[in-house]
Fold this protein.
Amino acid sequence: MLNKIFSTFDAAVQDIPDGATIMLGNFAGPGGTPYYLIHALKRQGTKNLTIIANTAGGIGLTVDYADHRVLFENKQVKKVIASFPFATSARNPSAAEKQIAAGEVALEIVPQGTLSERIRAGAAGIPAFYTPTGYDTVIAKGKEVKWFGGKPCLLENALYADYAFIRAYKADKMGNLVYRGTQRQFNPVMAMNARITIAEVDEIVEVGEIDPEVIVTPGLFVKRIVKVTEKPDFPRHLETSFRV
Amino acid sequence: MKERLSRETIAMRIAKEFFDGAVVNLGIGIPTLVSSFVPEGIDVIYHSENGVVGFGPVVTADEMTAKADVDFVNAGGQYLSPKAGMCFVNHADAFLMVRGGHVDFTVLGAIEISGKGDLANWMLPGRGVGNIGGGMDLAFNVKRVICATEHTTRDGKPKIVKQCSVALTAPKCVNLIVTDIAVIEVTPKGLRLKEYAPGWTVDEIQAITEPELIVSPELKEYSLF
């Protein structure tokens, strides 16, 4: 069986070249954010990255932690495609916000549902799709409009990535993944999109140990798996489930 | 200065709109408060953009140590309590529910609302930037869009205007506006004043509302029950 397990996060991101496009899971706190892969990429130092994520990091809405804002602080990013790119407080602008304002980083802002659908479309071999969201707003600029059933819709293009950084709960050695709670968010769609998907997980088990009925991301999408060994500062209760 | 209703009262009035079994998405701010006031016997299913449906209440400060878990949050990053029957979905499916018309109500905040029901709530004035987040998808696609807002800005300017001056979230999307002095329905003919806060007259409300209000024949005092 193909060995997908990498012993360190540094080894798992070592080959990422300058100019790569990277998708990473991120929504409302550290839960589904591939924290250790992000920090390994910072140490690796590759530049001119395009980051596709819900935020541009450091938005300050929830617990303050070193998410992918570190890639901006380290000047590794040239473009970000996001729906929530700015810090929530004007007093604490993020590194991304300052770099966007200074013209050092290009921003493509995308309505959130359109963002995940563009990622899914890229994964599904659908090059573009029409959606009602955004008609007659700044988002519509330069986009083809077509009417369906009396509703104006915008043509939106699929997104594609070279790498996806995924945060999941458990993997088996084939890369089949299950998630925990709201950790899912963008992770399953990004996992299906990228040429090389790297999963950061709490646990790696033998093939056959995960019930096939509950696998969310099929292993064929996952090329590399790395296990988290450190205990994070964030509140997590891995021993309990969310079942009532 | 006339008395205005509290944020909690606005939330209480909005909660009255929901029906049993409704799928509801609440934005951040006053909208979040609405969940505390849903009448007994009305069971609504809460939807959050990050991908959880049918969850329980937000974890309170007292419960934080025992229950806070970064793997169980709403779109605003607040920790949630589980509820029997809830389920997790991925983000694309959470917005399939929104775009596909499977969400009955969304309650959103507003920077400006026009007489036609255009909503502006994402571009931050004076900062030249903004976070679209999921607000645009919700405003365009949810069956009934309710705006919860103060009637005027902090310096007393109308928030309900003839034409929005900042970038739109969505054109012609708002169905109902609930403010600290009035309940206003957006109709094809214009804004219909349905309810007023105790002590307020139609003229006083009109004076701080830019578009002309159509007074409903059933105009009544703000009704919470």
